[in-house]
Amino acid sequence: MSLLRRIVTHFRRGANLFRQSSVNREIDAELKAHIEMRIEDNLAAGMEPEAARRDAQLRFGNKTMMRERTTAEDTSPLLAGIGRDVHYALRQMRHSPGFALTAILTLALGIGANVVALSVLNDSAPARSAAFGAPVRGRAEEPG
Amino acid sequence: MARKDLQGALDLLVLKTLDQKGKMHGYGIVLHVQRASGELLAVEEGSLYPALHRMEMSGWIESAWALTETGRKAKYYRLTAAGRKELEAAEKSFDQLVKGVRAVMRYA
Question: Which chain A residues have a beta carbon less than 8 Å from that of B68?
Answer without folding.
Answer: 37
